[in-house]
Amino acid sequence: MAGHSGGSNRPNSTAGPNKICQFKLVLLGESAVGKSSLVLRFVKGQVHEFQESTIGAAFLTQTVCLDDTTVKFEIWDTAGQERYHSLAPMYYRGAQAAIVVYDITNKDTFERAQNWVKELQRQANPDIVIALAGNKADISDKRAVEHQEAQAYADNSSLLFMETSAKTAVNVNEVFIAVAKKLPKSDPQGRSGQAARTGVDLNNSAPQSHGSRCCSN
């Protein structure tokens, strides 16, 4: 399954070799909202009906191809249980992007997501790109959080927002692509150590990842 939406995400074949930028992305949200399922769907194109709870955090990589840049995500999927909350800053510290996930059928997880956003805006990299993902759109008949309510909150908080479904793959690749497009790709000359602000330009051959699907159908 392609990891892009539409031909605009294909690299421009008439240009020079793609620039490769690496960014750290962290997923945050309450337990059982589907964070691990979203990552698994994005990275491997798979879905597991019974996903075990993450302990601590899991690490995966995947790439997204934009017009002249290949964005390599280092993805940290954090545990949602309250007992792991104190570990979260260790994972979002230095992250250039975050996807905060809630379950559209559970109002409490939406309120918890707003707390995560506040924490990121207060303690994380000031330039962090934050996306809000309302997961489990495949069971919208059980909806407890209206799309308009979440959209209004996202607009007021300057967040990207999409409703997703790890089960049916709706908007899963799209939310990661939207984040990739918002990230700064320029690498200041003569300035090393800019990873927390603009990402790392790997400047080498195609990155290794768990089955990058972004550049081909």
Write up what this structure looks like.
- The chain has 217 residues and is of the alpha/beta class.
- The chain has helices at residues 35-44, 88-92, 107-123, 147-156, 172-182, 195-198, and strands spanning 19-29, 57-65, 69-78, 97-103, 129-135, 160-163, 200-201.
- Strands 1, 2, 3, 4, 5, 6 and 7 form a seven-stranded mixed β-sheet that branches.
- Strand 4, helix 3 and strand 5 form a beta-alpha-beta unit.
- The radius of gyration is 17 Å and the shape is globular.
- One of its GO terms (biological process) is protein transport.
- It is an enzyme of class 3 (hydrolase).
- This is small monomeric GTPase.
- It is a lipid-anchor.
Short description:
It catalyses: GTP + H2O = GDP + phosphate + H(+). This protein is of the alpha/beta class and 217 residues long.
Distance separating the two termini: 6 Å
Helix content: 25-40%
Number of distinct beta strands: 7
Count the helices. How many?
6
SSE blueprint:
Layout: E1 19-29, H1 35-44, E2 57-65, E3 69-78, H2 88-92, E4 97-103, H3 107-123, E5 129-135, H4 147-156, E6 160-163, H5 172-182, H6 195-198, E7 200-201
Parallel strand pairs: 1-3, 1-4, 4-5, 5-6
Antiparallel strand pairs: 1-7, 2-3
Q: Which key phrases capture this entry?
A:
single chain, 217 residues, alpha/beta, seven-stranded mixed β-sheet, 6 helices, 23% strand, globular, disordered N terminus
